């Protein structure tokens, strides 16, 4: 069965993670029936600053929604989007999700995913964590979400910043249930 995926991009540093995720989802299109994307205003600014472009506009096979478009299909559980990936996930966004504050499409979609007992993966990027951050991560985890810190691995010997980011995105895609060809520890 093909997946329906929501990707939310927030204003935390780490736009490279969103870019690599978009690129990988393009490659996995045979496993996907829909990708809905919502980006905060800050996410677009951070992307432009960190990556030096506005290439998030070039992913034509995804459907982009404005941050306040509550008519997006994934604003309701009836649309049956099965996975939401927030990458990078700011601590502000995580806090709103942890406390059930649905003040934009990102937090509403996360609320829907959690209430429907579907898969929410929050790729948090801040460091260090305050006790408030840790408690918010705990609350989201207890509600059924998955906290996947943007901590790259290096045992695959990545050669570029995109390959480093790819180690995190590979883990995210595994958590989301995609079949993919990626580095596996100690496998030939």
UniProtKB/TrEMBL annotation:
Catalysed reactions listed for this entry: dimethylallyl phosphate + FMNH2 = prenylated FMNH2 + phosphate
Domain Flavoprotein, chain residue ranges per copy: 3-174
Keywords per UniProt: Flavoprotein, FMN, Prenyltransferase, Transferase
One matching Pfam family: Flavoprotein
Any one GO molecular function term: flavin prenyltransferase activity
Assigned protein family: Belongs to the UbiX/PAD1 family.
Binding residues for FMN: 11-13, 40, 90-93, 125
Protein name as it appears in the record: Flavin prenyltransferase UbiX
Domain of life, per lineage: Bacteria
The keyword Transferase belongs to this UniProt entry's keyword annotation: yes
Annotated source species: Pedobacter agri
EC number: 2.5.1.129
The UniProt record lists the keyword Transferase: yes
UniProt binding sites for dimethylallyl phosphate: 155, 171
Alphabetical list of InterPro entries matching this protein: Flavin_trans-like, Flavoprotein, UbiX-like
NCBIfam families registered for this protein in UniProt: ubiX_pad
Listed SUPFAM superfamilies: Homo-oligomeric flavin-containing Cys decarboxylases, HFCD (SSF52507)
Top enzyme class: transferase
Function: Flavin prenyltransferase that catalyzes the synthesis of the prenylated FMN cofactor (prenyl-FMN) for 4-hydroxy-3-polyprenylbenzoic acid decarboxylase UbiD. The prenyltransferase is metal-independent and links a dimethylallyl moiety from dimethylallyl monophosphate (DMAP) to the flavin N5 and C6 atoms of FMN.
Originating gene: ubiX
């Amino acid at each position: 069965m093909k997946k329906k995926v929501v990707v939310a991009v927030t204003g935390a540093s780490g736009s490279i993670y969103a870019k690599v995720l978009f690129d990988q989802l393009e490659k996995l299109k045979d496993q996907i029936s829909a990708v809905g994307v919502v980006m905060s205003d800050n996410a677009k600014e951070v992307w432009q600053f960190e990556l030096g472009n506005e290439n998030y506009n070039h992913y034509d096979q995804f459907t982009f929604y404005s941050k306040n478009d509550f008519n997006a299909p994934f604003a309701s559980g009836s649309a049956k989007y099965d996975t939401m990936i927030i990458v990078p996930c700011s601590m502000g966004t995580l806090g709103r999700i942890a406390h059930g504050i649905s003040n934009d499409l990102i937090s509403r979609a996360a609320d829907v995913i959690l209430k429907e007992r579907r898969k929410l993966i929050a790729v948090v990027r801040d460091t260090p964590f305050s006790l408030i951050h840790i408690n918010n991560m705990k609350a989201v985890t207890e509600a059924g979400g998955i906290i996947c810190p943007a901590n790259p691995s290096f045992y695959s010997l990545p050669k570029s910043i995109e390959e480093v980011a790819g180690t995190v995105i590979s883990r995210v895609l595994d958590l989301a249930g995609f079949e993919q060809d990626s580095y596996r520890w100690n496998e030939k």
